[in-house]
From TrEMBL, chain A:
Name of this protein: Cytochrome c1
Xref: Gene3D superfamilies: Cytochrome c-like domain (1.10.760.10), Cytochrome c1, transmembrane anchor, C-terminal (1.20.5.100)
Membrane-spanning segments: 7-32, 255-273
Keywords per UniProt: Heme, Iron, Membrane, Metal-binding, Transmembrane, Transmembrane helix
GO CC term, one of those recorded: membrane
Annotated compartments: Membrane
PROSITE patterns to which the protein is assigned, alphabetical: CYTC
Domain of life: Bacteria
Native source organism of the sequence: Erythrobacter dokdonensis DSW-74
InterPro entries per record: Cyt_c-like_dom, Cyt_c-like_dom_sf, Cyt_c1
TrEMBL record, chain B:
Transmembrane helix in keyword set: yes
Pfam families: Rieske, UCR_Fe-S_N
Miscellaneous field: The Rieske protein is a high potential 2Fe-2S protein.
Superkingdom as given in the UniProt entry: Bacteria
Localization of this protein: Cell membrane
Cofactor section: [2Fe-2S] cluster
Catalytic reaction equation(s): a quinol + 2 Fe(III)-[cytochrome c](out) = a quinone + 2 Fe(II)-[cytochrome c](out) + 2 H(+)(out)
Organism of origin: Erythrobacter dokdonensis DSW-74
Protein's membrane topology: Single-pass membrane protein
Lineage of producing organism: Bacteria, Pseudomonadati, Pseudomonadota, Alphaproteobacteria, Sphingomonadales
Name of protein: Ubiquinol-cytochrome c reductase iron-sulfur subunit
PROSITE patterns per record: RIESKE
From TrEMBL, chain C:
Cofactor note: Binds 2 heme groups non-covalently.
Coiled coil: none
Residues that, per the record, bind heme b b566: H113, H214
GO annotations of cellular component type: respiratory chain complex III
Subunit (UniProt): The main subunits of complex b-c1 are: cytochrome b, cytochrome c1 and the Rieske protein.
Main location: membrane
GO biological process, one term: respiratory electron transport chain
UniProt keyword annotation of Coiled coil present: no
Keyword Nucleotide-binding belongs to the record: no
Protein name: Cytochrome b
GO molecular function terms noted in the UniProt entry: metal ion binding; oxidoreductase activity; quinol-cytochrome-c reductase activity
Database matches in PROSITE patterns: CYTB_CTER, CYTB_NTER
Binding sites annotated in the UniProt record for heme b b562: H99, H200
Length: 285, 187, 453
């Protein structure tokens, strides 16, 4: 009895404190106070839909398009790598993109990685080996910030997993550059601050990264695919999906196998269960 | 209570029993297969990971090694001995090629053609994995002038062949090749 | 075991006879989850989740021990070692996804287990101890899950550690030194990461120990059941094995199908993208949220937006931050007195019309609202919603339950479990042949039920 009485008193007290000191003032403010100010930039944000037709790896049956991953790698190498590292990916991983061992050796050697002079121990550079990881374009974060107007270009290894719906996000971002609608901007007093760039698919529409893919044909694809901006954006988004989750396709394929087995096992378990309980439940009349 | 047991038994006809057993055995064996399959990732995760397997080549410049000297390099996180044999050592090793050995090999078996003076071996005693002495200047080279493992007293000759002591095999010669006259690539 | 008709273990081979004398493990298993444990015959699928929760604990311990073989608790490399597991370790991605989603599924299962306990009043005498131990397990799980989420050292890990240890700074006088002590520094860093790893490894085994006590306490009165009527005769029960081992086996299969679907097809759906960004002490993510299973409690924490002041004087009695912390911990700690708040002699919600209404139209929607508000940014209308829901949460347990249990007229209970399952004729037959003692069949409420106090 004491516990129940105490409970009722404590419960009413908590509720009173909550209602009188938090809920009522909050409600008055919500109903009669000034509406919360929204940054003007939100008026310009547009949610992207990803590339037309989606990606080959979408959905539970999705697979890599190896040619696309190779093209995306080329875009990364020729465009993104100037500022963005890829530190969790090693050259040896490129074998997954359909390159032979010799091609990977040659590809690795085409990159310059930090090394040590074997005789003096002084820091130096050397051609990459398959076991090396993609080198960072900057020696450290301070150098990266200094070279980029204080905005450090993020590592791209996990970019598509570090953003909601990341593959589409990368694509949308790369094709989202442009100008804010001048009429609307004048009305709202919106201006992209100096040193930032307008991108309608970036959450606050002002991004520190200058437009990386500016021209159709910025890279020349060996397989003859026309290198339009959307094509390059899609290819590099696919490549970055692979860098973020190299096991994606293996994972889905294993998943089907496991699910099939579990369905079979569960069906057997169900029959076994019903068999054991047969006669224990009254028959429906 | 008695009536319920009776209900249970009524279904237990000859045929019913057999069918029942079959389904239980099938369900249990399937569960067993599933349990065993789970062991695959749990066991194989302890095997060398992709980066360990990949980090398996080492290049060594042998040009600076003088006859009679040896250097220690690292291959797969293990010591690697690269020794340049003197003319006398080569002669001694060849003389012993026919001697009775635990793990008979000739010097030619253990070196590359045209580079008979360069002996590349793992610096890992084949007994229990200690690092033998004899690579560095002034170390005990053992009774046969090659390497000597201090852990349990294995003596290797100038060609790294086991001659005395508990080790069962010669010092292992890893896979390697000369990428140029002066550089070897191990692994 | 308390029931006289429980089957006795009889070792058959020489080996089991010898073992039974020296270390009667087979007997223990036989009595705990074998044919020697009589269980009410009418348990529904809601009674599957206890076994499933135990299975989840096992998944977490097995995958966790294996992951710890590759992980390094050092702020410089922790994030990288997790990526190493994902990319280089054989089957590492599967093990890590199983562990991460395993935590979520553990909470799903435990929440269903708790809701079952709340609806069927499984916390009532004589099962208070089982309930109390269960609350202890839940608290340990929350601590373990929180510390586990810090280990990948992503942005959410780091800021979660910062914010959750910051809760303790709300405590008057000792709060701030306490937070510094918890972290071993002024911000989450190596010291915090290492101790969290150590405790994250230790606590699951503590949980396993309390789980054993939980099951032990369960075997004293035996399992409850959907009617809430206590077991009276042998016809009310079936042996745990094979009846419930088979049912739990089937339930496990269904659980594993859902689990595998998440692990293999949507492994990151329950996580937060920001945790794939390495911890950065200089930049807070735009919207910090804990893992989804903490959202209801996070909503309660944030519901208190105003300091408790003496009106018109501006004197602050309790700051809002402390109110929120008290309410959040209080919302779980009040479960410890739940068995004594609800005095209704009837257990099952099916026979409690008023309680039933408050449960389905009050409590469950409240939990949904708290869940949604906890995961949403701190904006209107979510703040107001969370405040209304928080108020109802405390009213439900502390005010409504005691009063409802006092004034409610329960529906007539079945005389026995057997009657509930097979209908009255069978029950009457059972009462003639069985060992039922006392009471007029089918009319009076269960005589074995006593008021909870």
């Amino acid at each position: 009895m004491t516990i129940r009485l105490g409970g009722i008193i404590v419960g009413l007290a908590i509720t009173a404190v909550l209602v009188l000191w938090s809920l009522v003032p909050g409600f008055i403010n919500f109903a009669f106070g000034p509406p919360p100010e929204k940054q003007a930039s939100y008026a310009f944000y547009e949610h992207g839909e990803g590339p037309e037709g989606g990606f080959s790896f979408d959905g539970p049956m999705g697979k890599w398009d190896v040619a696309q991953l190779q093209r995306g790698y080329q875009v990364y190498k020729e465009v993104c790598a100037a500022c963005h590292s890829l530190k969790f990916v090693a050259f040896r991983n490129l074998q997954q993109l359909g390159y032979t061992e010799a091609e990977v050796d040659a590809e690795a050697a085409s990159w310059t990685v930090p090394g040590l002079d074997p005789n003096t121990g002084e820091p130096t550079t050397r051609p990459g080996e398959p076991t090396d990881y993609f080198p960072s374009p900057y020696p450290n974060a301070i150098a990266a910030a200094a070279a980029n107007n204080n905005a450090i270009p993020p590592d791209l290894s996990l970019m598509t997993k570090a953003r909601h719906d990341g593959s589409n996000y990368v694509y949308d971002l790369l094709v989202g550059y442009g100008e804010a609608d001048p009429e609307k901007a004048a009305k709202l007093g919106f201006e992209t601050p100096p040193g930032l760039y307008f991108n309608k698919h970036f959450p606050n529409v002002n991004i520190a990264m200058p437009q990386p893919l500016v021209l159709d044909g910025q890279v020349s694809y060996a397989d003859g695919t026309e290198a339009t901006i959307p094509q390059m954006a899609k290819d590099v988004a696919a490549f970055l999906t692979w860098t973020a989750e190299p096991s994606l396709v293996q994972r889905k394929q294993t998943g089907w196998f496991v699910l099939g087995f579990l369905l079979f096992a569960t069906a057997l378990a169900f029959l076994s269960y019903k068999q054991i309980w047969a006669g224990m439940k009254p028959k429906k009349k | 209570m008695a009536s319920d047991t009776a209900v249970l038994n009524e279904t237990g006809t000859e045929e019913g029993v057999r069918r029942r057993d079959w389904i239980h055995i099938a369900a249990l064996s399937t569960a067993g297969v599933g349990g065993a399959a789970v062991l695959i990732p749990l066991v194989s995760q302890m095997a060398p990971s992709a980066d360990v397997l990949a980090a398996s080549t080492t290049e060594v410049d042998v040009s600076a090694i003088q006859p009679g000297q040896a250097i220690k390099a690292v291959f797969r996180k293990q010591p690697l001995f690269v020794k340049r044999l003197t003319a006398e050592e080569i002669a001694a090793a060849k003389k012993d090629d026919g001697a009775s050995m635990r793990d008979p090999q000739t010097l030619a078996d253990r070196t590359k053609e045209g580079h008979e003076d360069v002996l590349v071996t793992m610096g890992v005693c084949t007994h229990l994995g200690c690092v033998p002495l004899g690579a560095a200047e002034g170390e005990n080279k053992g009774e046969f002038g090659g390497y000597f493992c201090p852990c349990h007293g294995s003596h290797y000759d100038v060609a790294g062949r086991i001659r005395k002591g508990p080790a069962p095999l010669n010092l292992q010669v890893p896979e390697y090749s000369f990428t140029s006259d002066t550089v070897i690539r191990v692994g | 075991m308390s029931f006289a008709w429980a089957k006795q273990y009889e070792p058959k081979t020489a080996l089991t006879k010898w073992l039974d004398e020296k270390l009667p493990l087979p007997r223990l298993v036989y009595n705990a989850v074998g044919a020697g444990y009589p269980v009410p015959r009418n348990l529904n699928y809601m009674w599957n989740f206890g076994v499933l929760a135990g299975f989840c604990l096992m998944i977490q311990i097995v995958t966790g021990v294996v992951l710890a073989m590759h992980y390094a608790a050092n702020q410089a490399v922790a994030f990288g070692t997790v990526e190493h597991i994902m990319r280089n370790v054989n089957w590492g991605w599967a093990l890590r996804y199983a562990h991460a989603n395993g935590a979520s599924f553990f909470f799903i299962v435990v929440y269903l287990h708790i809701f079952r306990g709340l609806f069927y009043s499984s916390y009532k005498a004589p099962r208070e101890m089982i309930w109390l131990l269960g609350v202890v397990i839940f608290l340990l799980m929350m601590a373990t899950a929180f510390m586990g989420y810090v280990l990948p050292w992503g942005q959410m890990s780091f800021w979660g550690a910062q914010v959750i240890t910051g809760l303790f700074s709300a405590i008057p006088l000792v709060g701030e030194p306490l937070q510094v002590w918890l972290l071993g520094g002024f911000a989450p860093d190596n010291a915090a990461l290492n101790r969290f790893f150590s405790l994250h490894f230790l606590l699951p085994f503590v949980i396993a120990g309390v789980v054993i006590l939980h099951i032990w306490a369960l075997h004293i009165p035996g399992s409850s059941n959907p009617t809430g009527v206590e077991v009276k005769s042998e016809s009310d029960t079936v042996p745990f094995h094979p009846y419930y081992t088979a049912k739990d086996g089937f339930g496990l299969g269904v659980f594993l199908i859902a689990f595998a679907a998440m692990v293999f097809f949507l492994p990151n759906a329950l996580g937060h993208p920001d945790n794939y960004i390495e911890a950065n002490p200089l930049s807070t993510p735009a919207h910090i949220v804990p893992e989804w299973y903490f959202w209801p409690f996070y909503a309660i924490l944030r519901a208190f937006t105003g300091d408790l002041t003496i009106p018109f004087t501006g004197i602050v009695l309790i700051p809002a931050k402390l109110l929120g912390v008290i309410a959040m911990f209080g919302s779980i700690l009040l479960w410890f007195i739940l068995p004594w708040l609800d005095k209704s002699p009837v257990r099952s919600g099916h026979y409690r019309p008023l309680f039933n209404k408050f449960f389905w139209f009050g409590f469950m929607p409240t939990m949904v609202v708290l869940f949604i508000a906890g995961g949403a940014p701190a904006e209107e209308p979510y703040v107001l919603l969370s405040q209304v829901a928080t108020a109802y949460y405390f009213l439900h347990f502390l005010v409504i339950l005691p009063i409802v249990s006092q004034i409610e007229v329960p529906k007539p209970l079945p005389f026995s479990i057997t009657e509930a399952v097979l209908g009255k004729d069978k029950a009457a037959e059972a009462s003639r042949t069985g060992t039922v003692d006392g009471g007029d069949a089918g009319t009076l409420p269960d005589g074995s039920l006593q008021p909870a106090e």
